[in-house]
Amino acid sequence: xxxxxxxxxxxxxxxxxxxxxxxxxxxxxxxxxxxxxxxxxxxxxxxxxxxxxxxxxxxxxxxxxxxxxxxxxxxxxxxxxxxxxxxxxxxxxxxxxxxxxxxxxxxxxxxxxxxxxx
Length: 118
Fold this sequence. Notes:
This protein has a 5-stranded mixed beta sheet with strand order 1-2-3-4-5, with helices on both faces. It is globular and about 35 Å long. By secondary structure, it is an alpha/beta fold. The N and C termini lie far apart (32 Å). It has helices spanning 22-38, 55-71, 82-91, 103-117, and strands spanning 4-6, 12-16, 44-48, 75-78, 99-100. Helix content is 50%, strand content 16%. The relative contact order is 0.18. Strand 2 (12-16), helix 1 (22-38) and strand 3 form a beta-alpha-beta unit.
């Protein structure tokens, strides 16, 4: 089970290990899919640990971001690593996830998006 938290403003925060290996990718993606189903329409923040970003973690983040877009759910990614932020921004192409350095800035950005739609 992935560590999760729901903020007072209703944002779901999912903590991911940045150094996930390929063997855990399918199970982690399935868990995230279940969380998205259980928390429908809830904005999501994927918070990466400080470890070096693995290719499997990039894949999970890009896939989770795509699942959120397809479900009409706002999403953001948090990593304190400038290198990881660049990788996620460049490696994802035109549909790059919304990447932030802090949870606070990601939650604020999601609250603004959700508030403008309401």
